[in-house]
Amino acid sequence: MEGVGSFGAGRAGGAFDPVAFIKQPQTVLRILSWVFSIVVFGSIVNEGYVNSHSNTLHCVFNQNDDACNYGITIGVAAFFASMFFFVLDIYFPQISSVKDRKRAVLAELGFSGFWTFLWFVGFCFLANQWQRTSPDELPLNQGADAARAAIAFSFFSIITWAGLTVKALLRYRLGTDMSLFTTENIEGIPDAEPYPGYPTGSGIERADTYQSPPFTESLGSGPKGFQIPTY
């Protein structure tokens, strides 16, 4: 549950609720990012290379192999990263260390922000190369649907990864809710009783409360003055 404990997760050791986990916006964005990455690199791998007037396969994006390689690389990397962070989201509430939670959130924030930028570059790169592609390079319009799908889902990936970046930033800014660690919120521990104060007296001192000194011998009973010793 978001907003409950340290960095948006509850106390470590709590029960895992799969229904609530799937309904989280972060989980939905994670699954969409995973699906979009499959569409991008799958479209390029399957139909992104055509042979025009030769037996050599060329990239459908203006015969620029760098465009296809770029789309495949960021798509495959996003595919594995989505699975990794999905598993991390499941395990995250079980992390008891606040420092480890902070590291996980910072790692997600940095990666999601960086991959949002890479998807933006990929979308602009693929769209630009597709605009420069001549119809003569695509006999019978080969690979056109795959190229359009890769461009479209690259754009959609920008949105999902940007959403994941925002969610990670919110979790990082949420930080640690220290109110969970007060004694009032710990179950099974009663509130501490106040320390009893010192007993208050009547404020009137009595003379009989004082005792006589232990040495009661009178000073006047001893020899008076200085006596000369006898030899």
Automatic annotation (TrEMBL):
Domain MARVEL: 21-173
Keywords: Membrane, Transmembrane, Transmembrane helix
Top-level taxon of origin: Eukaryota
Protein localization: Membrane
TM stretches of this protein: 31-50, 70-92, 104-130, 150-170
PANTHER family: SYNAPTOGYRIN, SYNAPTOGYRIN-3
Stated name of the protein: SNG3 protein
